[in-house]
């Protein structure tokens, strides 16, 4: 081979090598290079604008036309009634206790209660149901129902009746109690009367199961006494503080005025009218 041919061959090889190197270099630059707009981290995420702000777009103002079922309408009405009526049935909330454990009132001896019961104008000893019928017939006994400021409990060992003057006392005390709570969170609270007139037969049966019941002549058997055991709140906004304080003030006021005698018992306040 001549020297000229060798020189041309070496030139071709050098040119080819140079082209290969340039091509590889360009490919590497393309792979590792990243546009500025890609590596740039966005300052914050963007969220689509509400449809109300998009120009030319009117959002619908009417709800979908769906007819509710009869049961759904009744359920909604029930919920609305519950929300509107904050009061709850009396007795459905935990009552406030009215007894010697919660109220401090001086105790009058039971012998004084018995003497006061016998001295009342219409007083007579009630042995049995025949005496009850007699007392109602001659108006020496009158029936008692719920009144302002008080309610009659479900009676098991007594009857919802009293001497007329004792019934008047109960109504008067109920009104005084309601007046004391009027305009407060406890307005509507009532005291609960748990025992009224008992026949001697009822008293003897009760004495066998209740050690607090007297074995002698009970003032309940003269229609002269009633027991207050609880105060019932109208709603959960009323706590027991004010109702308890006001019933204590009421009892002490009537006791100091010589209107009533009181025996604080473990489960109630026993009250007897004084002539």
Please characterize this protein's 3D structure.
With 275 residues, this protein is α+β, with helices and mostly antiparallel strands. The protein has a domain at 96-273: 2-Layer Sandwich (Muramoyl-pentapeptide Carboxypeptidase, domain 2), CATH 3.30.1380. It has helices at residues 3-32, 36-39, 70-84, 110-119, 129-137, 164-181, 200-209, 241-256; strands at residues 96-97, 142-143, 150-152, 161-162, 190-195, 225-232, 260-264, 269-273. α6 (164-181) crosses α8.
Describe how the helices and strands are arranged.
Blueprint: H1 3-32, H2 36-39, H3 70-84, E1 96-97, H4 110-119, H5 129-137, E2 142-143, E3 150-152, E4 161-162, H6 164-181, E5 190-195, H7 200-209, E6 225-232, H8 241-256, E7 260-264, E8 269-273
Parallel strand pairs: 3-5
Antiparallel strand pairs: 1-6, 2-4, 5-6, 6-8, 7-8
């Amino acid at each position: 081979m001549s020297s000229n041919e060798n020189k041309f061959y070496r030139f071709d090889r050098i040119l080819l090598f140079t082209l290969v190197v340039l091509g590889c270099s360009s490919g590497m630059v393309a792979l590792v290079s990243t546009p500025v707009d890609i590596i740039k981290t966005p300052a914050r995420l963007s969220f689509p604008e509400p449809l109300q702000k998009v120009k030319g777009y009117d959002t619908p103002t009417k709800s979908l036309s769906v007819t509710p079922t009869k049961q759904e309408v009744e359920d909604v009405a029930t919920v609305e009634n519950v929300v509107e009526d904050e009061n709850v049935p009396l007795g459905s909330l935990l009552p406030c206790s009215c007894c010697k454990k919660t109220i401090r009132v001086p105790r009058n001896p039971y012998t004084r209660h018995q003497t006061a019961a016998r001295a009342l104008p219409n007083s007579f000893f009630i042995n049995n149901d025949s005496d009850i019928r007699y007392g109602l017939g001659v108006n020496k006994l009158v029936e008692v129902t719920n009144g302002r400021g008080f309610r009659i409990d479900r009676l098991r060992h007594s009857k919802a009746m009293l001497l007329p003057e004792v019934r008047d006392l109960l109504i008067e005390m109920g009104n005084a109690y309601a007046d004391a709570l009027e305009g407060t969170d406890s307005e509507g609270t009532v005291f609960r009367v748990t025992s009224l007139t008992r026949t001697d037969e009822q008293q003897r049966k009760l004495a066998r199961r209740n050690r607090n019941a007297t074995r002698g002549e009970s003032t309940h058997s003269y229609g002269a006494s009633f027991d207050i055991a609880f105060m019932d709140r109208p709603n959960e906004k009323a706590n027991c503080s004010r109702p308890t304080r006001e019933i204590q003030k009421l009892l002490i006021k009537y006791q100091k005025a010589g209107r009533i005698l009181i025996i604080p018992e473990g489960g109630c306040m026993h009250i007897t009218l004084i002539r």
